[in-house]
């Protein structure tokens, strides 16, 4: 039985798990753990690093740093947090963390030496003793907006991991935690400049993502060494396996890339399967017992990055190999170009590409310690036994093709003294004879199938790849026409009956010949066009037609262009000078093909259909590709490769799809010569997708048991009220999300209407629109739905009526009057809570009262969601808070100077330990704001984060409070920080 943290205890449970693996933890008792470190190391509230703790540690781990020069070093380090671009700052700070920061120190001769100061001691023998690992809850940073992540992990006082947690007592899940983390990054980017990654979790799920990562790159960590394995509690296992100090420091030092991308740079951190596979390789090289190993990872799992992580670690870790030469070998020029581009865009220094056979020969003879990228074909004429480095590690991509054309033997002769690791998603085991191709025999030591495996099943369960469903279309009815057949067959058909012709064709005509018969192509094109128009195009997905010959590809291309337009369809195959006219019609050169492929990957660009022969079935990643129309007889690893073209995840994409015109999937056991698990998960019958939809619909409808399924206001009110609280709210949010994706994949299908599924789905869509208007305040939530769902709503749901029943309210006196018109107290509470939270979020840094009111709203909502407060009680409590918000706004005034004065006055009278007379507080506030307007330059962009501005503000606060009003006893960091934030936030609002 799976065990989960009790309600409201996610944070405490997580801290306990961290405590068990070596973190110094504060906050397990439910108190605010950050307060302990704040007090001990005298942190100013706007700082994100515990500078005094870091000072202690850099003196401890760096011989050249002492009390005399540590502060100067830290002042220079402070400037490294001042970046407008988060990823740029994060990349720069990661370099300082992993390699040290340069610093000038005085030498014995009175001159200066440049040294590198380590912020973290990475020595594997004593890093636990020489570094400080703190895990605290509720670390608060006010800077513009105040953020307070649930748990933060610090190494030597530097925040490396930020965690946002949701529990079953809330209506939110890890999706909402990710959203919060992204908002934190926007509100206080300074906090994330040093960060390694973020964690988003709820009571049941754990996800981690690098700093700046979008939603889809928050992933699972589903593997663990024996000491952290816990089948009963996968969340505990993930936390301890990923966040134990040893793994965390290892990832920080050895598993981070920064990649240049057209849409903006990205930080790359390892998936668990990459991390553990690389460490298996390192262990094997270090131990030196075996010189081979097979990495069997399903397509789409990131094998390229696994190889690059392995190469980086082999080249940089002397304890693994002293001075190695590392080869990454691919088997096509296309894959070589892709890997070369990947390397060019990464922060990986020691690499070169073998430009020719002669260049490869030189590189082998020189034996320089670097990464060498080459194709296997370049080994064809390399001289044997010229290896210049006795520490050579070879990694072969697409290892299932490695043995072809005897090139493997050429490689072995050229690099006889090497360790060789094969990477594949589709290993080959063709037979038992010695000459038969067998990836396992080639790469695995005796008694071992693979060094590390990541299966199709694991990939689907992790959401890394999607399930693929197939539907058979090979038994099409079409008329046999002698005119459509090749000339050489015509005499065989004279005098035959239709049945005799069919029998002759089945015995004597190849699948390629069949694919080139005009009546069959016409019928297949008709099927493809209808299927694409009804099932694929509405949500913006794209398709690929796979053909057995260039002629059949050209025939498909002609006919599909007639139906879908010239720009919508492109045909890709190799060309020769003596091609017949039909094939010449679609000739493209390599540059044109590259351009077509790149356009295909873009959602809003043509083509929407690609017709291919012998192209793009390996190494082609296009998440927008949903459906493959397969008219080629593929088997085994070739079939797995083709299936994988459609299984890449994208927002709203529930599955990939194969429409089979050859009958390949009629007997999947014969088509795929793999283990039972691979066969079961590689592709499934499309009927299973319909069954999944039926099951999911039942699950979501069960949430509304007892509520009439009509379009009345009463039914809608009751339904929205039910899903306003835990646990139904969470169940509906997640359930409808999956249901919508399933519906979009299945529709149109006559059974949806015949079996009443569409009517039920229509009703749920109405509830979803009302729910979104109530909880998110969106004016038109139906616009965010998928295309087929939106069409149902437009045609069958009165959206105007829903808008009248569930208007989007804004905060103000009129809101309190309007909300009284709602009959259902649960809906009322949801409306007020959302409007108040939405209104307060940007204001929490402008006035201490806003922060307190925001915390009250959160507390009320959590108690209401958890069932501790009834609907009417929640409404009254929330209305009371909202009235206070309106009152504070009216008292604060509209102008920046009025708001700032009011905030400072409130802080002096309400936040200090001693009683402070309001009149005196108002005078001090007036003086501070007047001085601020006179002395602080705000005429340029970015003034609010400028260091000089910060100093000017602090000086004027000291001048007013300590000198003008003779109250130096009031001065401390929290007060100065608070007043500065009120000034900045109100004048920058």
From TrEMBL:
InterPro entries: Helicase_ATP-bd, HsdR_RecA-like_helicase_dom_2, P-loop_NTPase, Restrct_endonuc_type1_HsdR_N, Restrct_endonuc_typeI_HsdR, SWI2_SNF2, Type-I_R_enzyme_R_subunit. PROSITE patterns: HELICASE_ATP_BIND_1. Residues 284-445 form the Helicase ATP-binding domain. It holds the Pfam family SWI2_SNF2. Its EC number is 3.1.21.3. It is an enzyme of class 3 (hydrolase). Transmembrane segments: none annotated. One of its GO terms (molecular function) is DNA binding. Gene3D superfamilies: 3.90.1570.50, P-loop containing nucleotide triphosphate hydrolases (3.40.50.300). Keywords: ATP-binding, DNA-binding, Endonuclease, Hydrolase, Nuclease, Nucleotide-binding, Restriction system. It catalyses: Endonucleolytic cleavage of DNA to give random double-stranded fragments with terminal 5'-phosphates, ATP is simultaneously hydrolyzed. GO terms for biological process: DNA restriction-modification system. Belongs to the HsdR family. This is type I site-specific deoxyribonuclease. The lineage of its organism: Archaea, Methanobacteriati, Methanobacteriota, Stenosarchaea group, Halobacteria.
């Amino acid at each position: 039985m799976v065990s989960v943290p009790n309600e409201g205890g996610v944070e405490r449970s997580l801290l306990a798990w961290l405590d068990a693996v070596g973190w110094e933890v504060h906050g397990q008792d439910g108190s605010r753990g950050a307060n302990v470190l704040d007090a001990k190391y005298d942190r100013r509230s706007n700082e994100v690093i515990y500078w005094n703790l870091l000072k202690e540690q850099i003196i401890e781990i760096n011989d050249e740093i002492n009390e005399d020069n540590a502060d100067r070093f830290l002042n220079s380090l402070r400037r490294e947090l001042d970046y407008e671009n988060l990823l740029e700052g994060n990349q720069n700070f990661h370099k300082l963390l992993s390699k040290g920061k340069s610093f000038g120190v005085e030498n014995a001769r009175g001159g200066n030496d440049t040294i590198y100061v380590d912020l973290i001691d990475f020595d594997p023998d004593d890093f636990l003793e020489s570094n400080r690992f703190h895990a605290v809850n509720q670390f608060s940073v006010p800077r513009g907006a105040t953020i307070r992540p649930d748990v933060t992990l610090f190494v030597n006082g530097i925040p490396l991991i930020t965690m946002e947690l949701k529990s079953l007592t809330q209506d939110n899940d890890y999706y909402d935690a990710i959203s919060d983390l992204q908002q934190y990054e926007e509100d206080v980017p300074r906090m994330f400049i040093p960060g390694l990654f973020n964690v988003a979790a709820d009571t049941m799920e754990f996800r981690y993502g690098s700093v700046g990562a979008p939603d889809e790159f928050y992933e699972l960590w589903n593997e663990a060494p024996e000491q952290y394995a816990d089948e009963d509690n996968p969340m505990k296992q993930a936390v301890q396996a990923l966040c134990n100090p040893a793994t965390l420091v290892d990832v920080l030092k050895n598993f981070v890339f920064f990649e240049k991308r057209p849409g903006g740079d990205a930080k790359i951190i390892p998936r668990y399967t990459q991390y553990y596979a690389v460490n298996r390789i390192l262990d094997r090289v270090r131990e030196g017992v075996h010189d081979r190993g097979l990495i069997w990872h399903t397509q789409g799992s990131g094998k390229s990055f696994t190889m690059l992580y392995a190469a980086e670690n082999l080249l940089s870790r002397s304890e693994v190999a002293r001075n190695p030469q590392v080869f990454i070998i691919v088997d096509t020029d296309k894959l070589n170009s892709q890997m070369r581009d990947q390397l060019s865009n990464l922060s990986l220094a020691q690499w070169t590409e073998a430009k020719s056979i002669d260049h490869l020969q030189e590189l082998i003879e020189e034996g320089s310690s670097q990464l060498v990228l080459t194709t296997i074909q370049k080994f064809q004429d390399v001289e044997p036994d010229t290896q210049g480095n006795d520490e050579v590690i070879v990694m072969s991509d697409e290892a299932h093709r490695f043995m072809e054309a005897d090139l493997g033997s050429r490689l072995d002769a050229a690099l006889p003294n090497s360790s060789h690791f094969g990477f594949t998603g589709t290993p080959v085991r063709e037979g038992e004879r010695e000459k038969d191709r067998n990836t396992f025999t080639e790469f695995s030591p005796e008694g071992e199938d693979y060094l590390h495996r990541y299966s199709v099943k694991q990939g689907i369960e992790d959401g890394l790849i999607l399930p693929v469903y197939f539907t058979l279309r090979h038994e099409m009815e079409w008329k046999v026409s002698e005119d459509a057949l090749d000339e050489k067959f015509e005499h065989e058909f004279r005098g035959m009956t239709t049945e005799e012709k069919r029998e002759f064709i089945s015995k004597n005509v190849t699948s390629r010949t069949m694919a080139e018969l005009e009546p069959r192509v016409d019928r297949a094109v008709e099927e493809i066009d209808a299927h694409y128009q009804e099932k694929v195009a509405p949500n913006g997905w794209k398709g690929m037609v796979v053909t057995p010959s260039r002629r059949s590809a050209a025939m498909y291309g002609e006919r599909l262009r007639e139906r879908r337009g010239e720009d919508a369809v492109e045909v890709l195959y190799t060309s020769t000078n003596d091609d017949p006219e039909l094939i010449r019609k679609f000739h493209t050169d390599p540059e044109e093909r590259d351009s077509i492929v790149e356009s295909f990957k873009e959602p809003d660009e043509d083509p929407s259909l690609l017709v291919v022969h012998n192209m793009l079935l390996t190494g082609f990643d296009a998440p927008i590709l949903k459906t493959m129309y397969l008219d080629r007889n593929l088997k085994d690893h070739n079939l797995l490769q083709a299936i994988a073209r459609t299984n890449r995840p994208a927002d709203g994409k529930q599955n990939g799809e194969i429409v089979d015109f050859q009958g390949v999937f009629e007997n999947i056991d014969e088509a795929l010569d793999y283990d039972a698990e691979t066969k079961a998960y590689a592709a499934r019958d499309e009927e299973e997708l319909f069954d999944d939809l039926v099951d999911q619909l039942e699950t979501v409808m069960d949430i509304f048991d007892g509520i009439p399924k009509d379009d009345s206001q009463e039914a809608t009110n009751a339904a929205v009220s039910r899903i306003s609280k835990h646990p139904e709210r969470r169940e509906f949010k997640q359930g409808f999300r999956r249901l919508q994706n399933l519906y979009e994949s299945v529709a149109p299908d006559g059974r949806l209407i015949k079996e009443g599924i569409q009517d039920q789905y229509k009703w749920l869509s109405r509830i979803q629109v009302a729910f979104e208007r109530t909880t998110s305040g969106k004016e038109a939530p139906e616009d965010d739905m998928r295309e087929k769902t939106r069409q149902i709503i437009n045609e069958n749901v009165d959206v105007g009526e829903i808008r009248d029943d569930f208007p989007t309210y804004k905060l103000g006196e009129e809101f309190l009057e309007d909300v009284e018109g709602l009959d259902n107290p649960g809906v009322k509470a949801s409306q007020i809570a959302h409007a108040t939270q939405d209104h307060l979020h940007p204001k929490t840094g402008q006035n201490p009262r806003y922060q307190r009111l925001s915390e009250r709203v959160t507390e009320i909502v959590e108690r209401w969601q958890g069932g501790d407060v009834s609907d009417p009680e929640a409404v009254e409590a929330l209305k009371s808070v909202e009235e206070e918000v309106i009152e504070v706004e009216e008292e604060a005034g509209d102008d920046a100077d009025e708001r700032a004065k009011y905030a400072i006055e409130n802080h002096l009278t309400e936040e200090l330990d001693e009683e402070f007379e309001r009149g005196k507080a108002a005078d001090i506030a007036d003086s501070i704001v007047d001085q601020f307007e006179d002395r602080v330059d705000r005429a340029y962009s970015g003034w609010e984060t400028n260091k000089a501005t910060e100093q000017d503000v602090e000086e004027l606060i000291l001048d007013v409070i300590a000198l003008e009003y003779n109250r130096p006893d009031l001065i401390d960091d929290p007060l100065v920080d608070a007043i500065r934030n009120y000034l900045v936030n109100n004048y920058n609002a």
